[in-house]
Amino acid sequence: MNIRYLFKTTLSIFTILFLNTAYAATIYPIDSAQILAGSKFDIKIEFNQVVNPGDIVIEINGAPISKWVANKSEFISNENSKGSSIIY
Question: Is 0.90 surpassed by the pTM of this model?
Answer without folding.
Answer: no
